[in-house]
Structure formats: C-alpha cells, structure tokens
Amino acid sequence: MENSLNSKKKPLINDAVKFSLLSILLGLIVGAIVLTISGNNPITAYGAMIEGIIGKPKYIAWTIIKATPYILTGLSIAFAFKTGLFNIGAEGQFIIGALVATILGYTLKLPAIIHIPLVIIAAAIAGGLWGAIAGFLKSKFGINEVIVTIMLNWIAFYLSNFMVSNSFLSIPNSEASVNINESASISITWLKDLVGPATSVNWGIVISLILVFVIWFILTKTTLGFELRAVGHNKYAAEYAGIDVNKSILKSMAIAGLLAGVAGAIQVMGVTHNITVLAAQEGYGFDGIAVALIANSNPIGVIFSGLLFGAFKYGGIKMQSVGAPSEVINIVIGSIVYFIALSSALRLIYLKMKEKKAKGGNA
C-alpha cells in the first residue's frame, strides 16, 4: 500500500525543470568553450561574473533591478504561450507602458499614494489595449498575432520617439524626455543607504512577484484560467465544450499586454524616471521570450529564469575586468534557448514514436 502511494507522488523536480537546468549547464559549457578559444580562462571569467552578481550588496541589488522587467515581459509571453498564442509584441507593449507612465508621471500633480497606483494602472491598461489590438485582429479576422505584434512593436517604437522629440515631453537639445514627478517614483530611498546611493532600488520586484502569483492563481484556480488553457491545448475541443475561443484570444492578448505595460511603467518609475529617443528597440520584450522558454512558460518559473537572465546581463559585464568579452553572455543565453528548443523537439519526437509503437502493438 505504501509503495503504491509513493509511486503516485509527483517528483520534486519534473522533466521540464530538468531539461531547463541541463540546458543552462550546456549553455555555460558552450560559453566556456568560446572563452577558451578566445584565449581566456573560463573559470576566471565565470568567477568574475559570479563576483559581479553576489560580491557586494549593491551588485545583488542591481541584479534584481535588471531582472525585474525580464520577469514581467517573460510572464507576459509565458501567459500567452499557455493560452496557445505567441505574444512577440511584449516589446511594443513595454514601450507603450513606459510612454504612458512618463506622460502621467510628469503631467499629474497628485499625492504619491494616489499618483503611483494611478500611473501603474493607466500603463497597464495602455499595454493591455495595445495587446488587445492583436487579439482582436486574430479573433475577428484570423490574422496571425506574430505579424500584427511585430508591426505594433515598430509603431510603438516610433510613437515613443516622436513624443520625446516633438511634444510637451521634449527637452531642447536633449534626447531624453522630461522627468516624472517625485510623487510618481517608486524608488526606495531608505534602502539606498544600505546598498549604495548609485543603485536604483525600487518596489518593482515586489509588484512583479505579486503579479506572478496573481497570474499563477488565474491560470490554475479560476474558470477564466481553465478556459484560456483549454483554448491553448486544443481550440477546437474548447469550442466544442462551449468556450468562446475568439473572446478567450482577445482576453489572453489583453492580459499579456497588461503585464508588459506594467514592466515599462516600473522601469520608468523605478529606474530611469524618463524615456529617451531610442536608436533601436531595447529588447526587453524579445529577451522575455528567452525567459519564458527557460521557465517552460511556468509563471513561478519565470521568477527564477528572470533572475538568472538579470544576473547574466549584469554580471556578464564584469567579465571585462579580467579581459574576457562580455558578449560571451549573449552566446550563453542563445545556447540555453537553443538547447531548450532542441530538448522540446526531441521530447516531441520521442512521444510521437512511443505513440506510434503503442498503436502498432495494439494492432
């Protein structure tokens, strides 16, 4: 009896987590090979990176600051993945959220207790509406969300640049916009005394963690989450079961956009306090794809993959102190994503072969 109960227990680490951990290890090995070929000692280089992540309190603070937008854009993309959609538009939704946060953070004169939540909610709605455009076109006309969101990314990009250069947000002879008011800032002033005044410690990570658990709850504990996941698994079966597939697509893209919009707002309210003319898209949304893949689209997993991504992005720069090129980190990240994609493909092939073998045995 005891053995039968133990056999039903779920393993502490499932296959998806194992594949992700293995992919991270293989990615680091690829990076070590590249470092060796370039004439650098990988142990020394990785040691400098680790020292740059956890060596001082301010390094840990910066790692968390860097990770925060990746957690939210990764969550945005993971949520869409779970519902069968590819939200490649998190970049544009992030930009729109940052733009709205700058506009309202600068123009409104309110007490912080009202100003801060108002700006975050407005940025979330703006990002949600930006995502909902793709959801509407997908549900109403069947237009692929990847194509639409790529186009929306560029529209958001040029709209933001236009507003910084040719509106009330502009500063003469500057490529940066006006700063938001102090009442819209989510910086943690007292914590700067502990980790260093040069850091941009803020409440963003707390907001991000709250949203992660809200999304986890929605997906796993609510009717809405069940409907969205059902559509993601098989939209035809979901439609047969009475679920409004088109409405679910619209809801999914709106919620995904909302999350990316909050990421943009937090970046402005907690770190930059303004926006600038961008020479190219910053990549928070695109990097969020890697974060979601590493997490296997698990909302809780996004926390850890986002922190890993932030650690790589911040700590990787420290490798330059020992003469190693920091670009190796991009190779490591790319390799990790490649191995995760490869493991998914191999797992799919294995399941197909197993299914085919089972059918042959039954025949």
Description of the structure:
This protein is mostly helical and 363 residues long. The longest helix is centred in the C-terminal third of the chain and has 35 residues.
Layout of secondary structure:
Layout: H1 2-8, H2 15-37, H3 42-54, H4 57-82, H5 90-107, H6 112-141, H7 145-165, H8 189-195, H9 204-221, H10 223-233, H11 235-240, H12 245-272, H13 284-294, H14 299-315, H15 328-362
Apparent shape: globular
Distance between the termini: 34 Å
Largest sheet: none
Helix-residue proportion = over 70%
Derived from helix and strand composition plus strand pairing, the structural class reads mainly alpha
Beta-strand segment tally: 0
The string of secondary-structure elements, in order, is: HHHHHHHHHHHHHHH
Counting copies of identical and different chains, the oligomeric state is single chain
Which consecutive residue ranges, at least 5 long each, have pLDDT under 50?
A: 1-9
**Count of helix runs:** 15
Beta-strand percentage range: under 5%
The average pLDDT is 88
What is the CA-atom radius of gyration, in angstroms?
22 Å
